[in-house]
């Protein structure tokens, strides 16, 4: 299990380098009062040098967190599993900013200013304008381009930008590519239900929505269930409000093709062909094998579940350091439907690489596991359910 107590490690850097910058951004972006500011600063001090204080008495989800943290309360933060500790950090940040408390800050997404700025950027107009050029392409070629956009859209993660520099790294490589299998399976199950577990809002969610529109428009999916977070999480993770903002951005885009996608998706939502769903599990500090039965039942029978991004990948294959040549299928046998992971590499976890690719990456002298320059499309089929 990865932990964040090794100075210099990636996980250590998230707590000791990324979070302090994030906290500054949050406190600079909104005029929180002294109580919220002090609570956020206390959280930063606790999470970088203190022990895990048990949840306060008034947390509405106190009982769940007490259970999830059983055996961890009182330990230094770095000794908790990395994914668990990050999840608790974001839960506590919402508490500190008053997100759940009656008052002026209730329901205010502390990351909204960053999300809004990203969505408003001129670069988004340029990205959406590219859709006009895709309209004339044959379906298969357009499909490839849309999958690629959704995949690399994951690189635009705002939290990653905090350490990668303003523009982020350049896209370079696909370390595993099951995209042919992805399209072949969707063709085989044509007209089925596809689940998409979203990751980030803004520049990732837009290409995700365009891909969803393609699946619906071409009949590869008759229905799409789009899963988002129930509350702000990991800085830029998409919530239902972010889906609406992205839909508006599409509908109002100068690009005719983008605006048409926005209108189609709007209709798809009103017709319940596209449903936006959420579940408290998506902000729980748990891996997918531990998902509750009601959510498992929702994925069961889907023709395919597409899991976007790095965090979903960590929860899918486990936040542990396995030999990278471990078969992807071995690590996702717990999942109730066929799965497709679309992810840029932004943490140390990776499986499903072939030996030659691994040797090349290890010999490259780069931080390939975490620098976001590599991406993967990995598919595992569960045919008995489709
Ligand atoms: O899920 P995402 O948005 O692709 O990535 C989330 C992420 O940036 O957050 C963690 C650090 O906080 C990393 O493991 C990971 O790279």
UniProtKB/TrEMBL annotation:
Cofactor: Mn(2+)
Gene3D superfamilies: Uncharacterised protein PF01937, DUF89, domain 3
Catalyzed reaction equations: beta-D-fructose 1-phosphate + H2O = D-fructose + phosphate; beta-D-fructose 6-phosphate = dihydroxyacetone + D-glyceraldehyde 3-phosphate
Presence of the UniProt keyword Metal-binding in the record: yes
Domain of life where this protein originates: Bacteria
Transmembrane segments annotated in the record for this chain: none
UniProt xrefs under InterPro entries: ARMT-1-like_metal-bd_sf, ARMT1, ARMT1-like_metal-bd
Pfam families: ARMT1-like_dom
Keywords: Hydrolase, Manganese, Metal-binding
Damage-control phosphatase ARMT1-like metal-binding domain sequence ranges: 15-354
Xref: SUPFAM superfamilies: AF1104-like
Family recorded in the similarity comment: Belongs to the damage-control phosphatase family. Sugar phosphate phosphatase III subfamily.
PANTHER family: DAMAGE-CONTROL PHOSPHATASE ARMT1
Protein's name according to its UniProt entry: Damage-control phosphatase ARMT1 family protein
Organism: Kitasatospora terrestris
Upper lineage: Bacteria, Bacillati, Actinomycetota, Actinomycetes, Kitasatosporales
């Amino acid at each position: 299990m990865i932990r964040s107590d090794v100075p210099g490690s990636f996980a250590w850097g998230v707590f000791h380098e990324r979070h302090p910058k994030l906290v500054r951004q949050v406190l600079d972006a909104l005029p929180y009062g002294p109580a919220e500011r002090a609570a956020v600063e206390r959280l930063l001090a606790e999470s970088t040098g203190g022990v895990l204080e048990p949840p306060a008495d008034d947390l509405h989800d106190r009982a769940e967190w007490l259970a999830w943290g059983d055996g961890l309360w009182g330990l230094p933060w770095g000794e908790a599993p990395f994914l668990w500790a990050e999840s608790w950090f974001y839960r506590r940040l919402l508490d500190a900013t008053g997100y759940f408390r009656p008052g002026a800050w209730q329901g205010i997404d502390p990351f909204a200013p960053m999300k809004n700025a990203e969505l408003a950027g001129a670069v988004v107009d340029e990205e959406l304008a590219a859709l006009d050029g895709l309209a004339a392409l044959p379906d298969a070629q357009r499909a490839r381009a849309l999958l690629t956009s959704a995949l690399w859209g994951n690189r635009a993660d705002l939290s990653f930008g905090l350490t990668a520099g303003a523009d982020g790294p350049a896209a370079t490589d696909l370390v595993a590519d099951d995209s042919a299998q992805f399209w072949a399976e969707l063709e085989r199950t044509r007209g089925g239900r596809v689940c998409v577990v979203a990751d980030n809002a803004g520049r990732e969610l837009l290409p995700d929505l365009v891909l969803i529109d393609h699946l619906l428009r071409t009949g590869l999916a008759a229905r799409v269930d789009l899963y988002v977070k129930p509350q702000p999480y990991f800085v830029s993770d998409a919530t239902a409000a972010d889906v609406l903002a992205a839909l508006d951005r599409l509908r109002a885009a100068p690009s005719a093709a983008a605006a048409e996608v926005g209108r189609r998706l709007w209709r798809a939502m009103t017709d319940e062909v596209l449903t936006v769903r959420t579940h408290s599990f998506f902000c729980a500090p748990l891996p997918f094998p531990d998902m509750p039965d009601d959510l498992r039942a929702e994925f069961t029978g889907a023709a395919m579940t597409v899991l976007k991004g790095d965090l979903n990948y960590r929860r899918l294959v486990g936040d542990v350091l396995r030999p990278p040549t471990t078969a992807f299928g071995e690590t996702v046998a717990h999942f109730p439907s066929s799965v497709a992971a679309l992810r840029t590499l932004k943490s140390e976890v990776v499986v499903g690489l072939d030996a030659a690719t691994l040797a090349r990456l290890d010999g490259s002298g780069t931080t390939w596991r975490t620098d976001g320059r590599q991406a993967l499309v990995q598919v595992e089929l569960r045919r008995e359910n489709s």
